[in-house]
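re: ur question from yesterday

yeah so i grabbed the chain u mentioned. its 223 aa long if i counted rite. heres the sequnce exactly as i have it in my notes:
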Amino acid sequence: MIGKITGRIDYRATDHILIDVRGVGYLVFCSDRTLAALPAVGEVTALYTDLVVREDLLQLFGFQTLVEKEWHRLLTSVQGVGAKASLAILGTLGHDGVSRAIALGDWNAVKAAKGVGPKIAQRVVLDLKDKAPSMMAMTGTLAQAIGEGEAEVIETVIDPEGQVKAQAPQNASAQSEALSALGNLGYGPGDAAGAVAQAASENEGADTPTLIRAALKLLAPKE
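ran it thru and got these structure tokens back, copy pasting raw so excuse formatting
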């Protein structure tokens, strides 16, 4: 299994890049979001990878973070979701967006990905809802994982005009700590994840105590 690849980008296509690793070229398929964040041709990059092996095909898929890679693995475990659909979902929502959509049961957000119909979107949300809490707790970049020092996690956003913009993600650490706290209070993983996701979306940049208070209000019995 090829889990990570580092090398020089030889060329870029619409859905993949060719990475030269000591004279051997690897075709690596990526989401639109990942492709937009990669450096220019001729520069060195590093990607986590997932190798798909079939009787008549070998394909390598690349991801900037372990969270993105893990979501790809989970998405493709859903019946009817292949690698192409998974990359479309990740490219449209980003891994944070996928976590929030599934935690909140928002299958319409999943359906916004190209080639994903309503039945598949609903199945994704239903099958993976209990996976969202652990995925929301995962953070980190490739540089951090391989000991290259501290690195700020930056997501890329493509605006309606096709321009790539950098955007800092929400406080993933606070969300993780809030999830843990709600779990300790006895809330189920699905309910806790949904409440934390909604609280985070309504309180951008909030710290852990603020997220916990907001999530508890959402989980309180309605009169």
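noticed a couple things. The two ends are 53 Å apart (CA to CA). also The beta strands are 4-12, 16-21, 24-29, 44-54, 57-63, 155-158, 164-167.
anyway ttyl
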